Amino acid sequence: MLIETKLATIEKVGSERLEVRFKLNEHVTREGICEILSERQRLCPEGPRDILAVIPGDPDFDLDVVTTNHYDGLGLDNCTRALAIAAASPINERMAGLFFAYFPQGFPARVFATEEDAKGWLASRAATASLS
Question: Do residues 3 and 43 lie in contact, with contact meaning Cβ atoms separated by under 8 Å?
Answer without folding.
Answer: yes
